[in-house]
Write a sequence for this structure.
């Protein structure tokens, strides 16, 4: 087995069925003048890169798939904390743009009007409103205290830990659930 | 051009040209919520803040391409320029469609191509008043409308039976009045017979009166009950019928997103809850309300001061009900959700029972079930417990009124102000009042239960089909079978297209083989022809008619499908073959089976064509089922035929039989076939190679082989595979 591995290493052939992990030292990310996420991956420059969270619910800053503009995977960054300062800031920003998921800081109200549930929310990105047809199809519970709310139109908000919300928000939530 | 929001003056004043298009986004560049305006003129694209400050300006001539890049929950508009891509504006998922359109429009202006026009589908559909999303296909905002809509809609189901309802109500009124007689007779007995010790004929007459009233009551209650059951069953049947009908009419995409087991509960339980409310509920409310009023009138006549005293606790009871109402409603919904989860879980694991057993995961499933079960038990206790708690509290509160009556009424009797009989009658009437008042809370229960059930039922009925029929469908008649895809783009999720800009012209009678890796869009391609989904962009025509202008009945008449997963309905083989043509003669059925290579094996079955198949019937093998399905398609006699991996799950011998059957079937019909084994597509007139939703190659088997492109690679890869298989088999 080791011999075979040795040969593959020598020839430097990428096994297409192996997950390619990007070494933190071999990658750097930045933002172009036009605001587009770009970077240098193992010596090659890409003027547009697309990021995917591999486990969007479980890990927000770990297991990031880096892909070119055609969607082909260039590799996986295991943890963005290991990257250099600029790369880390930009990758973090880009993830926040691509995975638009405001964090709910306060629930102003949850009202049921006609056949719609209307949530007035304060988030870390400003106030917003989420409208649902019903509760059972638009709420997800990825872990014990975490709730993901999805709007009729696909807009999403996250309640990271409902137990740590203020009293008003909690009672609104409890009333509805 | 329809423009949704008016451009603010501050921006408009600064423009040098008339804008071609503008749209407002709901995000700032830094990802915060906020508004920015995108404005397109003939010369430039600009982005503005709401107060008129310029964020970005780009000459249209500098742009090579504009893309709407979709993220999760949001997206951004990106312009490609010689100096690299530039982000124009960011938006949340609610605005995906309008900015998708913006990208196409700007791109068209930049490249000097034909400009697209905005369609209804691309504008965000919000109520202009409250900004909440509108239901599709309607301009009426449900939020701005009154809340009693659900109730009145529910009651409209009782309309066809109004005569019977009226009869029940009249009988109810009568019973109620008759029920009020006995206490009055008791009063007479006490005052006129027992107190004066006057043993005349009066006693006998009063007892006869009492007997007559109870006989009347019994009789009327029986008749009324029977009418109630009759109306109830009828309404329930109508409701179930309507729900099921709307379910059948919904498009596939509705079911893609939901577990099908949940609907079983919806169709049955929710309509039962609604029925209970309408028959028992409505009748009761009318009857009890009437009774309350009459009792009050009688009591006031007997002694108005004492009545007022007895009524002291009433406001308290009303307040209590109004506090409990919303709470109960929410708990019912909660309990419903638990039941719903439990049902979904059972449905899921039973459907996948083979997988569960194969992986030995019975214990995991059991523990998943018991978690959901515990949740249901908890919610059950919560709602029922609340329920059980309410009754005694109501009784206690009402009891205070009785106590007050006994005390003050008693002292009045002693003071000679009222007779003993009057006091007894008062207390009896008060006791009768307690009943309806308790029923008020039961009514709350019924009503809220029924309203939430109605909400869910109407939700199904109101869900518009994603593939609506046009008002004036074009009559097709018998088509030739020309099919054309014009720039068709479609994604199950709008922001993630599975088919991209597909163009293909197919002549009548041609056989097209669809080739590509899994996920390339082959099945989607086929789904589009059947119009299980409507394209997001572009059109599909049959004989030059847009399939959106053809009624679905008519369209499906032209299309026959043989799928990989053959589904036979519960019934005989003959019934299954004649599924699309119930009036087919026995000879037609046999002919179809013969062409499908199925006749021989069917005849050899002990029950022949009368063999029951489907869930509870005879187990046919995969190949046998497939051939029955082909016979079903043959008898349908479609002009356009779709074969989706029709031979994927059978052995080589059976495959040959099926192949033969298929080759007879496709003759003279426009055929689209998907197959994993490329060899089965050898007869195809043209092969279409799909990759990531795009057509990359079109041509005959030989042409594509000599071209040495993607198809060549696929063929080579399969040859490798069969070699390996050959080795394995040897």
């Amino acid at each position: 087995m080791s011999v075979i591995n040795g040969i593959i290493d020598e020839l430097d052939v990428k096994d297409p069925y192996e997950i390619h992990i990007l070494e933190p030292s071999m990658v750097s990310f930045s933002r172009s003048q036009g605001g587009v996420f770009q970077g240098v991956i193992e010596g090659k420059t890409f003027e547009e890169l697309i990021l995917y969270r591999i486990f969007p619910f479980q890990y927000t800053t770990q297991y990031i798939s880096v892909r070119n503009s055609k969607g082909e995977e260039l590799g996986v960054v295991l943890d963005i904390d290991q990257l250099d300062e600029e790369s880390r800031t930009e990758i973090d920003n880009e993830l926040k743009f691509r995975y638009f998921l405001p964090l709910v800081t306060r629930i102003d109200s949850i009202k049921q009007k006609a056949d719609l549930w209307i949530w007035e929310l304060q988030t870390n990105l400003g106030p917003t409103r989420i409208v649902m047809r019903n509760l059972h199809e638009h709420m997800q519970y990825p872990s014990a205290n975490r709730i993901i709310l999805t709007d009729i139109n696909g807009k999403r908000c996250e309640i990271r830990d409902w137990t740590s919300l203020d009293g008003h928000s909690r009672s609104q939530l409890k009333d509805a659930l | 051009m329809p423009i949704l929001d008016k451009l603010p003056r501050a921006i408009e004043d600064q423009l040098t040209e008339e804008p071609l298009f503008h749209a407002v986004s709901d995000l700032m560049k830094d990802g915060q919520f906020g508004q920015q305006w995108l404005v397109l003129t003939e010369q430039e694209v600009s982005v503005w803040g709401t107060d008129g400050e310029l964020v970005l300006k780009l000459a249209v001539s500098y742009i090579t391409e504009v893309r709407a890049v979709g993220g999760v929950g949001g997206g951004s508009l990106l312009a490609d320029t010689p100096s690299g891509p530039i982000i124009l504006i960011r938006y949340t998922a609610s605005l995906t469609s309008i900015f998708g359109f913006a990208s196409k429009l700007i791109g068209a202006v930049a490249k000097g191509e034909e400009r697209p026009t905005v369609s209804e589908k691309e504008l965000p559909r919000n109520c202009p008043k409250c900004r909440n999303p509108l239901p599709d296909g309607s301009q009426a905002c449900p939020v701005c409308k009154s809340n009693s809509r659900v109730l009145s809609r529910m009651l409209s189901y009782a309309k066809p039976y109004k005569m019977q309802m009226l009869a029940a109500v009249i009988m109810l009124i009568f019973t109620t009045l008759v029920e009020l007689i006995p206490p009055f007779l008791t009063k007479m007995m006490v005052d006129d017979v027992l107190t004066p010790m006057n043993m005349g004929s009066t006693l006998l007459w009063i007892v006869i009166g009492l007997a007559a009233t109870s006989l009347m009551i019994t009789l009327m209650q029986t008749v009324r009950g029977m009418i109630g059951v009759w109306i109830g069953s009828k309404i329930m049947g109508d409701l179930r019928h309507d729900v099921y009908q709307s379910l059948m009419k919904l498009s596939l995409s509705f079911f893609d997103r939901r577990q099908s087991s949940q609907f079983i509960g919806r169709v049955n339980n929710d309509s039962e809850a609604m029925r209970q409310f309408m028959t028992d509920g409505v009748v009761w409310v009318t009857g009890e309300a009437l009774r309350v009023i009459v009792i009050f009138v009688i009591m006031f006549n007997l002694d108005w001061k004492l009545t007022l005293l007895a009524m002291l606790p009433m406001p308290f009871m009303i307040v209590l009900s109004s506090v409990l109402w919303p709470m109960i409603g929410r708990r019912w919904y909660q309990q419903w959700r638990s039941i719903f989860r439990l049902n979904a879980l059972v449905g899921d694991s039973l459907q996948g029972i083979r997988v569960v057993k194969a992986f030995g995961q019975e214990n995991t499933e059991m523990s998943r079930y018991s978690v959901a079960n515990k949740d249901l038990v908890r919610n059950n206790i919560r709602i029922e417990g609340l329920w059980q708690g309410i009754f005694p509290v109501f009784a206690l509160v009402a009891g205070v009124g009785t106590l007050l009556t006994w005390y003050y009424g008693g002292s009045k009797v002693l003071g000679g102000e009222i007779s003993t009989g009057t006091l007894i009658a008062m207390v009896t009437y008060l006791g009768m009042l307690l009943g309806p008042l308790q029923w008020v809370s039961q009514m709350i229960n019924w009503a809220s239960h029924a309203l939430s059930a109605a909400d869910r039922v109407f939700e199904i009925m109101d869900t518009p089909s994603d593939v609506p029929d046009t008002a004036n469908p074009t009559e097709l008649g018998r088509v030739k079978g020309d099919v054309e895809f014009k720039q068709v783009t479609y994604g199950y999720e709008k922001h993630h297209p599975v088919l991209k800009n597909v163009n293909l012209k197919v002549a009548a009678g041609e056989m097209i083989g669809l080739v590509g890796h899994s996920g390339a869009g082959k099945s989607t391609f086929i789904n589009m022809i059947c119009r299980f989904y409507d394209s997001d962009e572009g059109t599909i025509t049959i004989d030059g008619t847009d399939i959106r202008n053809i009624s679905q009945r008519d369209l499906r008449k032209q299309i026959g499908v043989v799928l990989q997963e053959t589904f036979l309905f519960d019934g005989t083989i003959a019934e299954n073959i004649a599924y699309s043509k119930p009036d087919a003669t026995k000879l037609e059925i046999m002919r179809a089976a013969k062409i499908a290579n199925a006749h021989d094996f069917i005849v050899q079955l002990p029950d022949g064509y009368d063999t029951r198949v489907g869930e509870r019937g005879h187990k046919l093998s995969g190949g046998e089922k497939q051939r029955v399905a082909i016979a079903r398609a043959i008898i349908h006699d479609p002009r356009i035929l779709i074969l989706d991996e029709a031979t994927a799950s059978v052995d080589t011998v059976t495959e040959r039989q099926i192949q033969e059957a298929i080759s007879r079937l496709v003759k003279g019909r426009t055929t689209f076939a998907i197959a994993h084994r490329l060899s089965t597509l050898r007869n195809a007139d043209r092969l279409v190679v799909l990759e990531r939703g795009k057509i990359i190659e079109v041509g005959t088997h030989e042409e594509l082989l000599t071209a040495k492109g993607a198809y060549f690679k696929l063929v080579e890869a399969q040859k490798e595979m069969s070699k390996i298989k050959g080795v394995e088999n040897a």
Q: What stands out?
A: Residues 85-98 of chain A form the longest helix (14 residues). Helices of chain A lie at 2-11, 85-98, 167-176. The first strand of chain A starts at residue 27 and ends at 31.
